[in-house]
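Thread: quick sanity check before group meeting

JM: Hey all, I'm pulling together slides for Thursday and realized we never actually wrote out the predicted structure for the chain we discussed last week. Dropping the sequence here so it's in one place. If anyone has concerns about the input, flag it before I start.
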Amino acid sequence: MKLFFKIIGAIFALLVLATAGGVAANWQLVNQILTYSPLILPPFYGDPADRAEAQEQDIRFLRRLTKYDRSFSPEELEAFNAHLDAMAAATGEMSDAEFFLNVAKAAAITNNGHTGVSNAPVYSRFNQSGVKLFWFADGLYVVRAKNSIGELVGARVATIEGRTPKEINKALEAYTGGAAQWRKLYAVMLMESPELMHAAGLAASPNELTLRVEDSGGKRAITLPSYRHPDAASLPRRRPWMTLRADALPDEEESWQRTLSLSGADAPLYLRDPNENFFVETLNGGVYLRPQLLLQREETPILDQFQSVIDGAPEGGYAFMAVDLRWSPGGDYTKVIDFVKAAPGTLRSDGRLYIITGPQTFSAALVTAAFLKYYGGDQAVIIGQPMGDHAQFWAETGFPFELPNSGYRVNYATGYHDWEDGCTGKHEYCFTQNILHEVPAGSLEPGVTMAPTFSDYARGRDIIMDRILTERP
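JM (edit): ok, ran it. Output follows.
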């Protein structure tokens, strides 16, 4: 028996030593996890007796958000607590839509794009009006619509419930943090729901929405009744740019009218094969690539795909490289480092590196743009629209933060980034990987600003690639 305990003791000692050795050898990673990926324990409040108690419990748990999210300034923290106090005073009185918007407003107080409520409930829990809208340089347009109101496709929206789209957007900005162009994108998804518009005090009824539109037939008003997709709770994630796709979205089937029906080689490069996470095309001696989610997984082997672009460079180099980040929401920026360093070396001496950006270029996609600009030097130019993230932002996260009764997931941020000047040595919570990889890229505003009109989109034109191919014939 003594021998048995000696053996057990020896095994335990070896495990302790092995663990200690592993921690020491990987201390940087361990420290990163401990600092930026908090463990969030679920609450144990017990089953709520009614709606009021359910909302009270959710609000109580929501107060914990600022224990993890580091993006709140002292003033914003004070505003956050005051907002939650007001919510607590109205428990049981708020509709589901009002409660959702109040949670969204609380998280958006910090004005950080990575801090906010997940937008999945917008289309999975709340009703819709049967149209999908999108902003263009010349206004807000109906891009898609249910078959019964298909004549609205292509119409410019003059007013929604008597207010101009700009007025509506201004009011809805409060529910999303981050750059103005990012908030504008997600405000459109709120505009499409009568229930959420009513909860925001912007629609007379939660069951219908009145639009005044303008098209070739003139101006007219139309009232859109609400509807719910029969399988709404199971719908996959929808990002704003998907409204521009030519194919049917999961909540549409084939019963919707769409602006575009282009596919294959007829579609513009920026919308060709939209289900592909990584699209690449060689043309005119150059190469166009359109990455989306920047993660290395079996279904998204981004490292191999970037490397294929590098390996495919012709003798003498590419005439140009156009990296289209317009649909990229981010991912893991460490997965692009080898590519961004090697990319300029694949260009001819007179070649150009075009970095195409837009309001949906976010997080690690912004970092990719910063890398490409920095390593590309005089050959690099950012072209398109301002990105959806600030050059200075908070990101990184740990275990999910989910309200116990409503199930609303709130994204929080723990690590600081500065891709304009760099944050290493300047900020207590400068993200660990930044210390190894960050570059002071300078201004990330487009060197050439271009935004399509609805007509450009409807004709299947990509004015940015037209400009690039004109410059690099």
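AS: nice. The CA atoms of residues 384 and 450 lie 5 Å apart. Residues 1-7, 9-20 have pLDDT under 50 and may be disordered.
JM: adding both to the slides.
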